[in-house]
Amino acid sequence: LRMGDGPFYGDSLQQLYQATLDVPPVRPGGQVVRRDIYAEYFPTAIRYLGLGRPVRVVLDLGNGAGCLTAPRLLCELGCEADVLFGEPDGGQFRGRGPDPLAPGALDALCKRVIETGAEVGLAIDADGDRLGVVDETGQVISSDRALLPLIREALEQGERVFVTEVRCTRSTIRYVEQRGGRMEMAKCGYPFILDRMRETGAVMGFETTGHYYFRNPDIKFDDAVFAAGLLLGALSRTQETVSEIIASAPTYYTSDELRWHCSDEKKFKVVERLVEEYSREYEVITEDGVRVERPDGWALVRASNTAAEITMRWEGDSPESREAIGRELQERVRRVMEEVAGSAMPRG
Q1: 3-state SS of the chain?
Q2: Does residue 337 contact residue 307 with C-beta atoms inside 8 Å?
Q3: How do strand 212-214 and strand 253-254 relate by DSSP bridges?
């Protein structure tokens, strides 16, 4: 939900609920306006985009909402686009499913990038707000590293502040810091990223789920097609490949997200206990759960916003340190959950 230029959530929703309990008399007047948003979208978006040279791209639209905007916008931009799953199919998403970041979802895109010699592969999710990226070698790039070409360009232009959330890889954070920039952390979720961007004046923000946001006077939401256009513009102004740009950042090894069931009554207590414990041993970030900053990596524990779950993720500066951090994290979380619950968790 949105109101005006920003998200409508949290306390605003509660205020709306309270207002409905005492409904004022209906006021006459008002009107319904029908607008062709596409007639406004294309000239608005293209105003902020531009290529230094043509870019060869494979575009995986997944039979979703991106089919209505991406081919036309990228064509007007001057891209050489090879399109996969480019026809809407009534919400069936038969091509590769609605989520481009699901395991195996981008196999067809990776294969086509290699076959065609494209510079990059881009995939848009079902409702058009998330972007997946594949480099020229057919490797899927994680969402918290995929914008490095844009981040680099912004830093070269004098921008210094970026916003991410607590699951972000240290690779991108260190990349920004080494070049004089600063990465601000926010809670996971669209409203929190946008709020922190406004507070800090950040030029862009991003989530590990592929949502990207930009300090733009007209497109103030996570539009994957617009993000694709900006990314292609950055690539067109360099002779380096996507993989070369990604390789210029420090290497870290990130785990998949692990989810354990924990009741809504207990999950926040578990996180509170973990904040107390870890803060005695390490630097911690408590913006959303607890992110433990270790010399060899980090570990994160959050209470899920949407389910009765504890979620965990961790990262190391080597595969061995990643495994060691993960083992310690799981052992500690299991112990604290048992202490809070007053009984042992089932094993396995």
Answers
A1: CEECCEECCCHHHHHHHHHHHCCCCCCCCCCCCCCCHHHHHHHHHHCCCCCCCCCEEEEECCCCHHHHCHHHHHHHHCCEEEEECCCCCCCCCCCCCCCCCCCCCCHHHHHHHHHHCCCEEEEECCCCCCEEEECCCCCEECCCCCCHHHHHHHHHCCCCEEEEECCCCHHHHHHHHHCCCEEEEECCCHHHHHHHHHHHCCCEEECCCCCEEECCCCCCCCCHHHHHHHHHHHHHCCCCCHHHHHHCCCCCEECCCEEEECCHHHHHHHHHHHHHHHHCCCEEECCCCEEEEECCEEEEEEECCCCCEEEEEEEECCHHHHHHHHHHHHHHHHHHHHHHHCCCCCCC
A2: no
A3: unpaired
CA dist 296 and 315 (Å) reads 8
Say if residue 83's pLDDT is above 70: yes
Angle, alpha carbons 244-115-81 (nearest 5°): 80
Q: Could you report the per-residue pLDDT of 30-76, keeping only the tens digit for each?
A: 899 999 999 999 999 999 999 999 999 999 999 999 999 999 999 99
Residue 227 neighbours by CB distance under 10 Å: 27
- pLDDT for res 137: 98
Residue 135's pLDDT band (cuts 50, 70, 90):
very high
